[in-house]
Amino acid sequence: MKKLLVIALIVVAAIVTYFVVTMSMDDIDGLGGDPWTLVLLEDNGKKEKMEDVGIKVQFTKKAVIWTVPTREGVKDMKGEYVIDPSKKPRQIDLTSPLFDLQAGIYDLKSDGLIICLGPRRPTEFSSRGQVVMVFKRG
Fold first, then answer.
1. Three-point CA angle 126, 78, 36, nearest 5°
2. Residue 22 half-sphere exposure, CB side, CA atoms within 13 Å?
3. Dihedral pair phi/psi, residue 110, rounded to 5°
4. How far apart are CA 66 and CA 108, in angstroms?
5. Strand ranges (DSSP E) for 44-122?
6. Domain containing 104 — which CATH number?
7. With 70 as the cut, is the pLDDT of residue 10 above it?
8. Fewer C-beta within 10 Å: the chain N or C terminus?
9. Number of domains forming the structure of the chain
10. pLDDT tens digits, 95-130
C-alpha cells in the first residue's frame, strides 16, 4: 500500500512539473524565434518612433540578445531574462550590458510585444516614471 501511494505521488508530481514547464516553455517559445524590432519607445509620456533606428531583441531559451547600431557598426549584446507568465500582468526581469537588472511586465500578442520597465516592477502599461517599449517581429 505504501509503495502504491509513493508511486502515485511521483506520478502526480511528474504531471504537475510537466504542465508547469510546458506553460513556461510555450511563453518562452512565444518570445523566441525571429528577432523583435523596437518600433516605439515611450519614456515618461514622451513617445519616440524607433523603426528606423534598427534596435532588435531576440530571446533564446537562455539569453536575450540586444542588437544595437553603433558608430562602429551593429553590435550584439547578450543579457539575461527571467519570465513569470503565471502573473497578471506577466512579469519579466531583464539585464543587458547597457543596464542593470530591470523588473518589468510584458504582453505578448500575435503581432507584437510590449515591455514596460521601471525602477520598481510596474503594475500597468504606462510610461509615467517608466519606459514602455513596443516591438514587432522582423
1. 50
2. 6
3. -65, -30
4. 18
5. 46-49, 56-59, 64-70, 73-79, 81-84, 90-96, 99-108, 113-118
6. 2.40.128.280
7. no
8. N
9. 1
10. 887 777 789 999 998 779 999 998 899 999 998 889
**Residue 81 structural domain:** 2-137
Do β-strands 99-108 and 64-70 pair in parallel, antiparallel, or remain unpaired?
unpaired
Burial class of residue 133 in the structure, from the number of CB atoms within 10 Å of its CB (0-12 exposed, 13-18 middle, 19+ buried):
buried
Task: Give the distance, in angstroms, between the CA of residue 62 and the centroid of all CA atoms in the same chain.
Answer: 12
List Cβ neighbours of 46 (8 Å cut-off, separation of 6 or more).
127
What's the angle, vertex CA 108, arms to CA 102 and CA 112, rounded to 5? 100
Sign of torsion over alpha carbons 84, 101, 128, 47: negative
Contacts of 9 (CB under 8 A, 6+ apart): none
Contacts 24+ apart (CB under 8 A), 102-111: 108/27, 108/30, 108/31, 111/136, 111/137
C-alpha cell recorded at residue 120: 520598481
What the block records as the C-alpha cell of 3 is 509503495
